[in-house]
Structures are given as C-alpha cells and as structure tokens.
Amino acid sequence: MKRFTIEQLKDYEGKEGQPVLVAVNGKVYDVSSSKKWAAGLHMKRHRAWCDLSHDIKAAPHGLEVLERYSLIGTVAAAEQPEMGGFRGVVESWLEMHPFFRRHPHPAIVHFPLGLLMAAPLFEAVAYVFGSNFTEWASFCCLVLGIAAAPMAIASGYFTWWINYGFGASPLIRRKRSLAWVTLFVGLAMILARVWLMPDPIGWTFGQTLPYFLGLIVLSLLTAYIGYLGGKLTFPYE
C-alpha cells in the first residue's frame, strides 16, 4: 500500500478528476463513490484530506462505514490538539464513558416517537368501538410523548454539539425545527383536549375530527423526524 503524508492528501479532494481520500487512524480510504463526500467535504465540516481520527469518534457511526470503501494506503496520524475549558472537560469524560457520545439521544428519542405515533391508532380504535378507556390511553400516549420530547430535544442538541460542533447542516436544521414544532403543537393539543374535549367519545365524529387529524399530523411529524435521524445515524446513500 502507498504511504501518504497529510500534505500529499491535499491533492485528493475530488477536484480535476482526482479521487477523494480520507485518513483515519493511520489508514487511507478511497471514498470517491460516496455522495456524502462530494467535492471532498462531508456534512459541510469534514475535509477529505484532514486526519479524521478524532472526528470519527464523535460521529454517529463507527469505523464500519469506512470498511465499505477501498483501503489504499497509510498515513502518519496527526497529533490531536488538547481541548481546554468546558469542552475539554466534556471530551475527557466522554473518553472514559464512550457510551454517552452516541447512544443517549437515539435511545431517548424513541420514547416520544413511539408514543406519539401510537396516539392516533388508539384514538381511531376508541372512536370505532366507543371506548373511553382506549381514548384515555391515546391521551396518555400524547401526554407522555410530549413530556419526553424536551429531554429528546436536549440530548439532540448535546449530540449536535459533540458530533458536529454546532456545524451547519440542512438535515440537522430541518430535524431541529420540526422537533420544536412537534413540541408546541403537542402542547396545544393537550390543552385543547383538557379544556375543550372533556368527553371526546360523547362528541360526534365531526366535532372530534380536528383533534384526530392533529394526532395524525403529530404522528407524521415524529415519523419524519425519525427518518431524518436515521439518515444521520446510518449514512446510507
């Protein structure tokens, strides 16, 4: 295999027909076939020719992603500067507890996702069978899902900071905006259900239709947020 220096890798960013090469842990991979490395830039933050040994530890995926591509050489790993201040303290703690670098947000976010997607299903069953108990189960799913949303959002911001340094990304921006929209719409629906619909099953279907449609909208929003999260976690193309 060819031996590279970091300086030599600067010529391999996909420009003028050159391949896109990335260096991680002393190994050089050809990622030219990846759309996520178009023009030698990934997530508008990671340059192809830089040593990404530290960056990949903070990524939402591991080294297994690079195994899809050809290992074509080696490179002397660059020394990583030590971080100071609060970020340095957090990085030191994460080095000792690597579980918390990736997993808390994907784990926490499944609570609001599952609960808010289940709410309209329970509500539909409640309307069909005239069951107050099932309608109450739907409302509990709504309340618990919205209650879990702030922690999911907070862990998402933490992951964004650690993994991407609050770097700009259309996908993350869309996911972040929709999360806040979902939270506020859900809160509005809880208030409407408590104050305006004390007995939904006793109402006509036309009267409860706006509330039911709102639950469907929340379900679709959470499903799409989950889809966006999946695109970040699993870099399929």
What is the element layout, followed by pairings?
Blueprint lengths: L1 E3 L1 H4 L11 E4 L2 E4 L10 E2 L3 E2 L22 E6 L9 H12 L2 H4 L1 H26 L2 H33 L5 H27 L8 H29 L4
Helix content: 55-70%
Cα-based radius of gyration, to the nearest Å? 23 Å
Strand content: 5-15%
- Describe the biggest sheet? 4 strands, mixed
Low-pLDDT parts are none
Report on this structure:
By secondary structure, the protein is α+β, with helices and mostly antiparallel strands. It has 2 domains: 2-75, Flavocytochrome B2, Chain A, domain 1 (Roll), CATH 3.10.120; 99-233. 57% of the residues lie in helices and 9% in strands. The strands form 2 sheets. The protein has a 4-stranded mixed beta sheet. Strands 4-5 form a two-stranded antiparallel sheet. A hairpin with a 2-residue loop joins strand 2 (21-24) and strand 3. Helix 5 runs antiparallel to helix 6 (170-196). It is elongated, with a radius of gyration of 23 Å.
Name some characteristics of this structure.
two-stranded antiparallel sheet; elongated; 9% strand; alpha+beta; 237 residues; Flavocytochrome B2, Chain A, domain 1
Short description:
A hairpin with a 3-residue loop joins strand 4 and strand 5 (46-47). The longest helix is centred in the middle third of the chain and has 33 residues, at 132-164. Helices cover 57% and strands 9% of the residues.
